[in-house]
Amino acid sequence: MRGLGRGSLVPLTPDPSPPKRGRGEIIACASPYRLAMLVVMHSHATPQQIDEVAAAIRQMKLTPHPMPGATRTAIGITGNIGAVDPRTLEVLPGVMELIRVTKPFKLASREMHEADTYVRFPQTVVGPGTFTLIAGPCSVENEEMILRTAEFLLKNGVHLMRAGAYKPRTSPYAFQGMGREGLDILAKVRRRTGIGIVTELMDTDNADAVEEVADVIQIGTRNMQNFSLLRRVSRATKPVLLKRGLSATLEEWLMAAEYVMAGGNYNVILCERGVRTFSDHSRNTLDLSVIPPVKQLSHLPILVDPSHGTGKRDYVPPMARAALAAGADGLLIEVHPDPDHALSDGAQSLTFAAFEGLLDELKRLAEPLGRTIN
Question: What predicted TM-score, i.e. pTM, was given to this entire model?
Fold first, then answer.
């Protein structure tokens, strides 16, 4: 089912059973996070009645977020910083009840959207029950390499390719990416092969150019709390892949997703890529333990990036298999035709042969887990 106008989502389950409240109770929003409740419509509510409720919410200087379900529609409300009197909405035709939402990350929470979200593309789908692979080089280096990689991935059934035209690097002297020329190469390869493009947006100045080329806009770990950038991609027509910050808590990560969703872009994919700890045996500490809490608290799909999470190609396959077993919805993996001569992140990039070996292992592991490799 298509939901909310930005890609195809699986919305609220038909019959949520939240705790009941007394009618007419004033809902106070003690949190600064600007949301307090969810309007649940009757299963027989008409489109006109739903529109009337949304209009009433806007008249209250708040923002409605309609979420059609299999048998009923729920309407989330954002924008309130004080008390909300629900009586204005409870008396409207078609309204069944109002539900208090307690999590600070409202739109990303299962309280508001109980069913899992699936993000769909022309090439593939990301969501539970599947295990979607996104693979490719760290950065665009030249057209021949990108075309060769795209053809290799498609041959192996991988329909989304990662590659950065803009690269955030610790050293100002390191390769910073090809910029607009790199975007042109990605666009050309996409037109020629049909592969989907996942590429990073680093600043608002290049947002239009990246959005035009990308099938998925990646927000990197260093920009997880770049709020002006999050607000910009909240208005984008493309899904957003949101990487966890280097030292971000789960709540901070989901609140960053909330920024994107609050602006109207509900197609958000989370990506765990390792956090910074005292350990020095790998580039980062890949926190696979965050997957079950994410699944419990949020309906958003979650991918794992074992390449950045470990920094060493020998460690990537074990962590990729572990991510599948832990319940992740897919992987973001660096693959390069000649990693030893890559311009960036060669040490953590798999060769084509190593990727094919990992893919075979994942297929054997996925079947008994009831998963399908995309």
Answer: 0.83
